[in-house]
Amino acid sequence: SMWLPPWSVYAIDVPFSQQYSHAWFWSVVITTGIGYDIQPETALEVAVTTALVAVGIIMLGFIIGSASSAITSLDMVESRKAERLEEINGYLRHHRHVPIKLKSKIIDYFDYILSDVSHDPLLESDLLGQLPDTLRVELTLAMHKGLLERVPLFKDCTARQTFEVITRLESMLVLPGEYI
Hints:
By secondary structure, this protein is mainly alpha-helical. The protein has helices spanning 16-32, 43-94, 100-115, 121-130, 133-150, 159-167.
């Protein structure tokens, strides 16, 4: 059945604005495919319904856009990781005298390092290397202060002692089975 406004199409006494608002509503319904089951009767109902359909479409577009942006971002991180792993693998393939077991350990190590974004030593050294000394110290203090607070030996340190300890910390990754 064809959609018709609540008043007759042939009614002469219906103001042009009301006819136009119904036509606008119908164009929104046809364009979006939303609202076939809605039949507003007054001009206010038409305006509100049209506005709500438009807001709903904008919100849906925003949600879909945000989700696709997040997926693209994750994909970029994974592709960057794959590129780095391929570079390392290519380097190891080039040196034929490296045993396969050692190559596998090295690839596993870098796979682990590159999977943990919070502990990417390459990113960390790049970032810290570009910062001025004052900002580097502030960042280092912010990143490691919680670590020292969890160690009972350093719990009662003064601010100066905490600063001295933190500025001398060196990040170190130890593989399972290694002796420190």
